[in-house]
Design brief:
It is a single chain. With about 90 residues, the protein is an alpha+beta fold. The protein has one domain. About 30% of the residues lie in helices and about 40% in strands. It contains two helices and five strands; from the N terminus they run H-E-E-E-H-E-E. A five-stranded antiparallel beta sheet has the order 3-2-1-4-5. The protein starts with a helix and ends with a strand.
Length: about 90
C-alpha cells in the first residue's frame, strides 16, 4: 500500500470510529426518474422527531433536481421509493 492510501485508510478508520453504529441506518438514497430508469441523485439522512419524518440533504441536490423539473424520490427500503411533493 502506498503512503497516500495508508494515510487515507488511517483517516477513514478514525472517522468511522466516531460515527454511531445506527447512523448508517439513517442514510437514504435520493433519486430522480429518467424513464425507464431511476438514477441516484444524492443521499440524505432520515430523521424522526415527534413522529414526523424529515430528510436532510445538501441544497444543491434539491436545486439541481428542481432546475431540471425532476420529481425527487426518497428510498423507503431496498425495493421502493416515496415521491416527494412541493417546491
Amino acid at each position: 500500500m502506498d503512503e497516500g492510501r495508508r494515510i487515507q485508510a488511517h483517516v477513514n478508520a478514525r472517522i468511522i470510529a466516531k460515527i454511531p453504529a445506527h447512523a448508517a441506518e439513517s442514510i437514504v438514497a435520493i433519486v430522480v426518474a429518467t424513464p425507464p430508469s431511476l438514477h441516484v441523485f444524492g443521499t440524505g439522512n432520515l430523521f424522526e422527531l415527534a413522529r414526523e419524518s424529515s430528510v436532510v440533504t445538501a441544497g444543491h441536490v434539491i436545486k439541481t433536481a428542481s432546475a431540471y423539473g425532476k420529481t425527487i424520490g426518497i428510498s423507503d427500503d431496498a425495493r421502493s421509493f416515496i415521491a416527494t411533493a412541493g417546491e
